Structures are given as structure tokens and as C-alpha cells.
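Re: folding output
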Amino acid sequence: MTRPDPAPPTDGWRRLHPLSPLLRGGLALVAAGAWLVSNQLDSWMSASELQEGPPLTLLGVLAAAGLLVLVLTSWLSWRVSRFRIGASTLEVRTGLVLRQHRQVRYDRIQAVDLRRPLLARLAGLSEVRVQSAGAGSDARLAYLPDADAHEVRRRLMALAGRGDERAPEETASLPDDRSADRGSLTLVRVPGRRLLQATLFRGRTLAVLVGVPTLLWALATGRGGVVAVVGPALLAFGGNTVQELVREWEFRLQRDHDGIHVSHGLTELKASSVPVHRVQAVALRQPVLWRAPGWWRIEVNVAGVGEGSDDGATVLLPVGTVQEALTTLRVLRPDHDVRAALAGMTGAGVAAPEGEGGLPPGSTAYTVAPPRAVWLSPLVRRRHGYAVTPDALLVCGGRVRRFVEVVPHARVQSLRLRQGPLQRRLGLATVEVLTTPGPARPRARHLDAGEATRLLNAQVGRSSRARERVQ
């Protein structure tokens, strides 16, 4: 008689670190209170008749009372905030006046991240953020000592069954750079100098460099209309550039026995798991100014992470060489997908034979747009194409900004064939591959209409069979 697997042990309730309330907002209240007291004190001291103002002893009493209330409130908030790793759920209780009791089932956990804002890093603390399926069901444990936070994250990942789903032999050829502190294998490390250079070689950075002298000229000559247009644009472009640079600083892609992880950030250090089981599509992109150094950027569509995510959750490689891009892609996809992606990156793919229009196993052939598509894409006609491997559909394109997008067959949600007026006249059509929202939007552009229909029908069958295999 087989014995059932024992249930995970049930832990008792545990409290967060005592400094948690202050780090979550108490320090801001202290700073605001100090600023108000300082301004009021200056006002009283500079009055013409000092005796008419309240005595300094009263000011001290009020300041001490405010500080006491703040400390008491923070202490009570810490006392009522606790969490428990139970047999089937993570439970979190918070709130002093408006109490909340949140439960997150382990089978609904999608990712467990570690975040370390600047003040928390100085205090040696980390926040554990649990992402769960369903709106409003995430949980935050802010804050825990670093060692405890890593242990809580490791245990939650184990209970949720979110280990690495790739076989060890598939990544045995990856570079061996082991981190001594965590025993992890560092796959890719992005140097700060390269990140700075890549930021300068971006279109919006060049727009800022051109816009600053334009703004100064407009201010000097009194051209208010130019200032009204250029000023907000500079703030938007410059702010986004600085935010992205700070967020992606010290970027590392690592692997250990728990899975694949990324860490990045300058002021706020974030460490999160790469949810391989939730990656729906992969996009490799190369701006025109990155072509000389041979740099590529990799972003992914992740189930549960929206397209407008501003925390870098969809970036797997901010800027890297071709070899680093292939290393990153090899962690996610089988090797034949990597070879096909390389053919799309270098433009080495050639038109496949008529009929299936796909990519036979071991081949690197792409089906490209026919010659008459030059009327719609005179510069990139030979760059528009698609290929099919046993596991994924790949789409490539772009002359100024090259891209290769990879969609596993099982992750294709639906397909759509679109044909504009000019396309109908030329006998062309575009096939759109619909997946979860994200940076990758695969489209096989300007194909022969018959070829587009064959691709759509064949891909429907491939996706159905792939979904049956993974169920």
C-alpha cells in the first residue's frame, strides 16, 4: 500500500521586521513633520514680538507628542501585521483600522520577487512580493531580513512547484560563471559601460541631445511656442531614459537549482524569477545604431504582466552581444529554435520551398514576401518572413530596426488574416499571431495571399496539437 505524500508542514504566524512601518511611509511623515516644525519655528523666531508666540516648551511638547503618536502607530501596525506559510496557502494579515486577511493559494502563485529599495538596503531588509493569478490577489511581505526573505522566497517557489522546467542537458553548454554567494550560475552580466553606450545610441536619447540646445535657443529668443512643445517632450524622453537606465543597471541573468532569475536596479534592487512556464512570446530587437557593435535586446510576453509594466518584468536582456542573446534564448527555447532565430537575426534565411512553407527540422529557411511586395515595403521586402520549427513559429523583419519574434505553438491563442486595399490589389495578406499582451506582436507581413492562407490553416493545427501535448 503506497503512502500519500506528506503535506507541507504548517508554520505559525510570523511578524515582519519592526522597522517595516517606518520604511513603508513613517520616514516620510517624520520628514514632513520636521519640515513643518522648522518652518513654524523660523516664523515664530523672526516675529517682531517674540513674546506673543507660544513658548518654546509648548513647541517641544507638541513635537514630542507627534513623535510619540507616530511611534505608537507604527508599533501597533507592526503588531497586527503578520504572515503564515500554511499547508496550502500563504496568509497575510495587515491593517490597524481597516484590517485585511489575504490568502494566496500555492497553485495560483505565478512568481515570487525580491525587492530592495534604497532605505531597505541600508537597513539590510528586503520585500517579498508574491504575484498570483487573478486581479488584486498579490501579496507583499515588507520587510524581512535579507536571509529570511531569500528563505521565504525559496520555500514559496518550492511549494508552488515553480522550479526550472528545462532539462539540465539542454543548458549544459552554457558559460560557467558561478556566483559564490548564492551558488548560482551567472549566464549574462551586462556591464554598466555598455548599458550607458547603448542608452546613448537610442533614438530618444538622440532626441534629447538635439532638443536641449533647441530649448535653450527658444528660451533665449523668447519663442514660447517652441518652449511649450519641446519642453514637455524633453521631460518625457529624458525621464523615461533615466528611469530605464536606473532600472536596468547591474543587470544579471542567473540560474540555480530553483530556476532562472534576473536581478537589476541602482536605487532599488529587484530580484525575480524568470517564469519560463508563463513566457508566451520572445522578441529580439536591434535598433539601427546597435548594428555596428552587434547588440540585441530581448523582451518577452509574460502571462499576467501587462504591456505597460514599468518594473522591467518583460526584459530578459537589456543589451547584449549576439552570443549573449543566443545564450539567453537557449535557456528558454530548444536549440533548433535558437538556430532559426540566428538565421533571422543575420538575414541568412532564404525562401522555403512551395507547399508547407515552413522550416524543416535542422533547416534555417524562411518564407519571405514575394517580389511584388516591394510596392508596400521597398526597403525591407526581403527581411519580411516567417519560419516554422517543431516547437515554435518565428517571424523576422525590419531594415532600420531589425527584429525576430518567437511564439511557441502551444502559446498561440488565435490567428488573424488581414488584407488592406493595396494588399488585395497585389494579392498579398498579413497573418497576425495573437498572444498575451506584451512587447512581442508577431506579424508575417505582405505574404502571398495563398501562402498566408496556408500558414494560417497549418498553424491552427500545429497549435491545437501542441496544446494537447502540454495538457
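--- second protein (sequence, then structure) ---
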Amino acid sequence: MTRLEVEAFLAIIKCGNITAASKKLHVTQPALSRRIRAMEAELGYELILRNKGGRTVCLTDEGKAFIAVADKFCRLYQEAAAILNINQKPVFHLSSVGSVSTYLLPNVLHKFLDLQRYSLCFHNYHSFEAYSYVESGIVDVALISDDMYSREVLTIPAFQEPFVLVGGESWKDAENVHPTELNPENEIRLPWSPEFDIWHEKWFDITVRPSVNIDQMSLMEEFLTGENWVIVPLTVAKRLRDTRLQVCSMNDGPEDRVIYYLISGSGKRDLVDHFLRLLHEELVSIAGVKSFLAKNYFAI
């Protein structure tokens, strides 16, 4: 299995079909098909279903599972090539769930890079993806919201924070709100956690559709107009770009969110330590957020 073959597979996935992928890679379609068939022959299973006349690529079950492996393969190849420049700044590989990376991490990462001793490689991964990347050594530290069991990866609480309500001008006189005061038709709905979903179903009719359903934090503020509202963790509310938005505490709100960090326990201790210290400093500057980093990491 060669780098060109793996890159051909990933290009087909990203482009959606062999025609577009061949143009992107500047090779002929038959040559691209031969790369895929050679890799399938070596692996012993098909990756792509051959549907005559199909305009988009369809993957086998094995092909779907192979996407993450192919991604890891290419990243490891890049790291192997980078050994030639081993005397350059060490690379810190960090991943995070979207809400933390969008609103909490920018200040931390600017300070991390200020010393100019490290190079940063950042990834947005869901919690379940982060475990495999930390386990394989591709990521040094991952910040996640949904903890799972792993024999190879340490899952350690980083901080705890309450949920609050955020709304536009219509909420300027509100300080404390109760779920019974909220119109679910005006909600901007975000998928925080299974625990949050249980709380949500307790207070709101599941047959009522929210104003907007999104899974991208970058879009949230765009929809916070008029009577619309959203429930977010405190670290998100404290770092909103639109200063006109109102933040209200909640009575009978969701249980606090806990963010965990994952480390494999091997290598790059100085980079990990530096990042976590900066994160701890940022967390303790936000009233209402409880950092566990001093207790759970620096004491080790």
C-alpha cells in the first residue's frame, strides 16, 4: 500500500467521484482506478462499490471503516517526512470539540504561540474520534465532552461549567430564567450531550420544532435575533463576539458540563504541560468556571 494509493482513495471520498478526483490529482481515470484496485488487492477487501452509471462514489462497509485509517496513514507519512527537519520547532498536535475551540481556545493558543518555541497543528474532532487519534499518537492532547473508556488513553477532567441562556435585545431585562418561561419555537438548538437531551425532553415538548437546529458553533450567533434564544456553556457565553447579546443564568437548568482532556501518557511532556498551564490560567479568569487542571495534572 503506497502513499499515492491512499491519497487516491481519500481524493475520491472528498471529490465524490473518480472523474473529479482524477482532475484534482492530475492523473487519468484508469490510472486512478488501478491505484484503488491495487490497494484493494493488497488489503483483501473492496473499498468502493462499482455501480455502473453512478455519479457519486459508494463505499463498502470496509471502505467506510478505512477512511480513518487512510487519514492516519497520510498524517504519519507527513510526520515521517518531517524527520528530515528534526531540528526545527517541535510540533504540538491538539484537537478539541467545536464549542471549546471556537470560544475558549483562541486566547490560549495565541499565548501558546507567543513564545515561538513550538509549532501548532490543530484538529476539530468529535469525542469518539479523538480517542483513536490520541491512542495512535497522532494527537498529543484532545479536549472532549463525552468521556469513554480506553485502556490506552488517560481521560482526565479539565473543567466544569454551568449552562446559561443567551438571547438578543428582547432579553436585556432578564437576569434569571426558568425553562417554563421559554418558547421552544424560538430556540437555537445545539446537540450538547445525552444528559442535556434528557433535561431538554423533561421541559420541552419534543414535537415542537426549534427555530434553528445546528451543529456548528460558528453559525450560532448569526441566528440570535429577535425572540430567539440558545442554551450554551458559560465559557461560550463569556466569549461571544456580539457584545449586544444578553446572558442570563438559569433556574432548574441542565446539569453542569464537564470537559475532559485525553493524553496517551507518552512524550512531549513539556508541550503538554505548557498548554495545560495556559488553559488553566484562562479558565480561572472566568468567574463561574471550575478548573481541575491544577489538581489533576500539575500535581502529577
